[in-house]
């Protein structure tokens, strides 16, 4: 269960090249990375303690994305997919947990559905398009007809019920300590945002995953994995 030097180094290497806004603690990745030469061992102990006690960061800063040319006081002026700005230390911990989850999925339990291309290493939208092209060419070569239906999930990251994530973790036989840690990660979560009067508002959330986290993208994939495994009659 102990977080190793190698795990922390891999997580930091991905953080090093990114220039992102800081979270609630005000510490940017560019400021955090140089300090790890001194704080690395302490962070490993902190992350190991989090895994053992199943505790995680609870608050994120919500940022609304404004559409151009719209009045700021209009609800329609903002995109339906706001982002959550996380603390960089939270991101590091999430990357370590996500790496362990992915390793478990690929080696021990059933992996994610083969038709899932989003948020996965060595897969991209281009691969998904090539899969569709291959299927359509196969159907046409046999004298058949190929039809494609495109669906858009509104508020995709805000919608997954947490019970769906819990069921997926159990189905994939994720180690208990990781299940407990993710359970705590979901429990008592809050978002902070600015109201129209300029005051900070703190609100509890009870579904969805924060957009902008490697771990949360993986949890989204797990929640929707059962949907991609549904057998459709021809």
UniProtKB/TrEMBL annotation:
Pfam families: RVT_1 (PF00078). Residues 46-234 form the Reverse transcriptase domain. SUPFAM superfamilies: DNA/RNA polymerases (SSF56672). One of its GO terms (biological process) is DNA biosynthetic process. It comes from the Eukaryota. InterPro entries: DNA/RNA_pol_sf (IPR043502), RT_dom (IPR000477). This is Reverse transcriptase domain-containing protein.
């Amino acid at each position: 269960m102990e977080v190793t030097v190698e795990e922390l180094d891999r997580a930091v290497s991905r953080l090093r090249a990114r220039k992102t806004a800081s979270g609630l603690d005000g510490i940017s990745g560019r400021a955090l990375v140089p300090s790890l030469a001194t704080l690395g061992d302490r962070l490993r102990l902190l992350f190991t303690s989090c895994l053992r006690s199943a505790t995680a960061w609870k608050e994120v800063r919500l940022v609304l994305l404004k559409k151009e040319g719209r009045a700021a006081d209009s609800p329609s002026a903002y995109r339906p997919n706001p982002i959550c700005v996380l603390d960089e230390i939270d991101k590091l911990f999430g990357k370590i947990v996500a790496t362990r989850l992915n390793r478990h999925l690929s080696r021990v339990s059933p992996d994610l559905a083969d038709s899932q291309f989003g948020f996965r290493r060595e897969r991209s939208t281009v691969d998904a398009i090539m899969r569709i092209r291959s299927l359509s060419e196969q159907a046409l070569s046999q004298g058949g007809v190929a039809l494609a239906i495109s669906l858009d999930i509104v508020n995709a990251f805000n919608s997954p019920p947490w019970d769906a994530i819990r069921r997926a973790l159990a189905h994939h036989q994720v180690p208990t300590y990781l299940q407990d840690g993710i359970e705590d990660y979901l429990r008592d979560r809050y978002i902070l945002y600015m109201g129209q009067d300029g005051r900070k508002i703190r609100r509890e959330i009870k579904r969805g995953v924060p957009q902008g986290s490697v771990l949360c993208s993986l949890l989204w994939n797990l929640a929707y994995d059962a949907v991609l495994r549904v057998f459709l009659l021809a």
